[in-house]
Design brief:
With 244 residues, the chain is an alpha+beta fold. It is built from five helices and ten strands. Helix content is 30%, strand content 16%. Helix 3 (144-155) packs antiparallel against helix 4 and helix 4 (210-228) packs antiparallel against helix 5 (232-239). This is Aminoglycoside phosphotransferase domain-containing protein.
Length: 244
């Protein structure tokens, strides 16, 4: 059906212009009911989109700044792979102090989502100690030596409490700041995992101690290598994971 489905948000709903940053999805600036919004069209399952839209609604009710799903005219939060969300204005972080505010916001996300169910079809980093596949991860496609290194990094996280992680918070394009709030957008990679994976930020702005930062940065590099395998970026990330 494609973008024709946008009509479910009203007769005046219109796609305005494509937005940069979409890889797995087609992301556009749209106008719905007279206001600017963002439309994301992809191939995620209804169960996956129900998980994400429920998460965003929960975080919004708790007072965090996130893209809020805008219902269709008949009250649905998505339709035929399309989600329409509020536009979040702001600028990306520039200083260590800015990234410190991002860390505080991420820790609030983690606090608010302890015990949250896993995103349908996804695996956490510690799940991948025992299974080979989950969403975009296929450890069977990686070199055996690389898998061993990744699993050694993830094993250091075993037994820790889990929550929802954003999944890509150090990407400048995913943070929208103003003087009084931090907005996090693009929750397409969010899932349940160990929170420290979200806290490997520029200049160690989350103030992890040396041991915690080493564990988190190794596990994060291993995750990025596995989830993106095998492009140039994933090869570079795997090179950061120590040999065992």
């Amino acid at each position: 059906m494609g973008w024709d489905v946008l009509a479910r948000w009203g007769d005046d709903a219109a796609a305005v212009a494509p937005l940069s940053g979409g890889v797995a999805n087609d992301v556009w600036s749209v106008r719905v009911r007279g206001r600017r919004a963002v439309g994301r069209l992809g191939t995620r399952s209804d169960a996956d989109l129900a998980w994400e839209t429920s998460l965003l609604a929960h975080l919004d009710r708790a007072g965090l700044t996130v893209p809020v799903p805008i219902p269709t005219d008949d009250g649905r939060l998505f339709a035929d792979g399309l989600v329409v969300m509020t536009y979040v204005a702001g600028v990306p972080p520039e200083t260590r102090a800015d990234w410190g505010r991002v860390a505080e916001t991420l820790r609030e996300v983690h606090r608010l989502t302890r015990g949250w169910p896993q995103r349908p079809g996804w695996r956490s980093s510690t799940d991948l100690l025992h299974v080979e596949t989950g969403t975009k991860v296929d450890l069977g496609a990686m070199p055996a030596e690389g898998v061993a290194r990744c699993r050694a990094a993830w094993a250091r996280l075993a037994g820790r409490r889990t929550c929802v992680v954003h999944g890509d918070p150090d990407n400048l394009g995913n943070v929208r700041m103003t003087a009084d709030r931090v907005g996090l957008i693009d929750w397409d990679e969010s899932h349940v995992d160990v929170p420290d994976l979200d806290l490997v930020l520029p200049d160690n702005a989350a103030d992890l101690d040396d041991a915690a930062y080493d564990v988190a940065s190794q596990a994060s590099a291993a995750w990025e290598a596995a989830v993106c395998w095998d492009d140039d970026y994933s090869v570079r990330r795997l090179a950061e994971v120590r040999a065992v």
